[in-house]
Prior knowledge:
Blueprint: H1 2-16, E1 30-36, E2 43-45, E3 48-50, H2 52-63, E4 67-73, H3 76-84, E5 90-96, H4 99-104, E6 105-107, E7 112-121, E8 138-141, H5 145-153, E9 163-165, H6 171-178, E10 184-188, H7 189-195, E11 202-219, H8 225-241, H9 243-252, H10 260-272, H11 274-287, H12 292-303, H13 323-329, H14 337-354, H15 363-374, H16 376-388, H17 396-402, H18 422-447
Parallel strand pairs: 1-4, 1-5, 8-9, 8-10
Antiparallel strand pairs: 2-3, 5-11, 6-11, 7-10, 7-11
Helix pairs in contact: 10-18, 11-12, 11-14, 12-18, 14-15, 15-16, 15-18, 16-17
Amino acid sequence: MGRVCAMCLIMLCQGCLDGTNLPPLEDARELVLLTRNTPTTYYFDGDRASGFDYALARQFAQKHNMKLRIKVAFSLPELFTMLENGDGHLAIAGLSKSTKRDIRFESSVPYLDQQALVVYKSGTLRPRALADLVARDLVVVAGSVHSEILRDLQTSLPQLSWREINAADSLEVMQLVSEEKAELAIVDSIEFDIQQRLFPRLVAALELGTATPVVWYLPKRQDNETALGMVNRFLEVAKQSGDIAHLKRLHLGQFEHASRLGSLTFQRKMRSKLPQWQSLIEQVASEYLMDWRLLAAMAYQESHWNPDARSHTGVRGMMMLTQATAGELGVDDRTDAGESLRGGARFFKNLLRRLPADIEEPDRTSMALAAYTVGIGHLEDARVLAEKSGRDPHLWPDVRAHLPQLQNPDIFPMTRFGFAEGAQAVTYVDNIRHYEGMLTLESLPTSRLSPPIHVDALLPEHLRGGPLPVL
């Protein structure tokens, strides 16, 4: 209900506050941001606004003591029309820098890079060279730089053709390929890395051109130097300070170490087994103030949501608890799904609390997950190894790199807690974070904002285009 209200508020804001008399960015008390509703830019995670670009824009607004107001465009042409009309101060939406766009707008310094990829469905004919794109049903997002790239290619491949799909991002074109309603699609690498988890049978066949910088765009104005300077200084500092790298880990990093086969299997189980257990998992997660998707991902990694699972080591149940751990947690019947989930949640929350207070998210949850499987003592050994090698023991990527060393016979005898299956712990955390991300992505298509309704299409012809009578 909260998310619906928030979405309605955004729609009302778009309808009622679309004035073009915005003060210059340097004088504004409110930053009006133009963006897209996509998994990589801006979306609702439950009732909370989220997304990499949203989080970065929010930091910019906070730094300059501005309120943040969002206006959502439902296609790239609409986004740039809004920017040109002065409906917002900035367009921040994973936008690639291009010559055509730079003629109309001011671009910031780059803060990311992305590569255009030609994507096809595994099992169908793979294109291996640019010439293989000719006479294929190729789709791109309307208004994207991919259309510019393809028009340039037509000079050497005059028979090249494609369809432009009016969509906010690559989700729709990837779905067309997945459903075999198109043969090929061109998508950006950042979006592909995220959304491939919804379409695990889609594969990148080849790269199109070179990597392009991702930038913020501002309207063209004669007095834009101050605003552009504000933006560029912020982005440069955010890159140098590691803030952008942190946001990438938080919003995009769940998919870095995933496998397509694991994604396919998880997707099947998500359809066949999760519905039986989801309400119970949500209830237990609520009791322990956890995101239910994290708890569901842990339970899948442990047992594939099987309350009767057991292993040769003696662990049993949905959360695969040992007899000793179950006793400490007050779990009488390890094969009772509710007891097992509550025991696992309680154990995880205890580990989360025991970590040093200066470890922040998302690193904190990843380290607690590692401690769940390998033990908090061995996790601490890996943190010590990371610090001794000049890495940061507060960052999961740095600790992750040192966990496998707990199996090295030249190293583990020198640690406090000795040998541990560190590589297995890394895989364990990678998988859970990946499954958690897939569950988040799965909910996004149903929670995307809908384009505004064109009222005229719903009215009789004699009432269209004029003022409506007041009833």
